[in-house]
Amino acid sequence: MRTRTLATAAAAALMLLIAGCGGSGTGTPLAATPTPTPTEPNSSYPCGLAGESEVAGAVGESTAHRTTRGAICQWSLDGNDGGAEAVFSWFVDGSLERERSTDTELGYAVTAIRVARATAFTAELPSNPAACSVTAGTDSGVVSWWVGYRNGGRHPDPCAGAATLTAFTLNEEP
After folding, report:
1. Is residue 48 a contact partner of residue 89, using CB atoms and an 8 Å limit?
2. Which InterPro entries would you find in this protein's record (predicted)?
3. What's the pLDDT tens digit per position in 8-52?
């Protein structure tokens, strides 16, 4: 009896999954648009305006490979220090105070700093000294870089890497 109930539940779940993935939408498809370049007006901050070499250099690793792209971009880095991850995010409607209060509520140690003439802060989990983010206010929202090293041993200061990347983004902003 129990086997039949489980089989029926599994079949029902599978049918819901198939139904949810099928059909057609009522909207009109849009043509793909090219990624804006930093010289175009209102181009925002595509991937923090940083290429793989800037990210690898700031984090202290030898190679970087971007794994995601958009308002949030991620790089996987490999090299001398056992590897790291770097993440850039840009929130057009974000506010520095909202980001600071959210990080504080989540238990991060938040420290006010200035980066490239901008008001900013670092956020670190006391239980994870291998990771740090730097968030800065801009005229069009907030930008944030997070750096986290994979190994628990010796590695460069993650806040220094995140601050370097934030300064790069702010100095290169359109």
Report:
1. no
2. DUF3558
3. 343 333 333 333 333 444 444 434 333 334 333 334 556 767 777
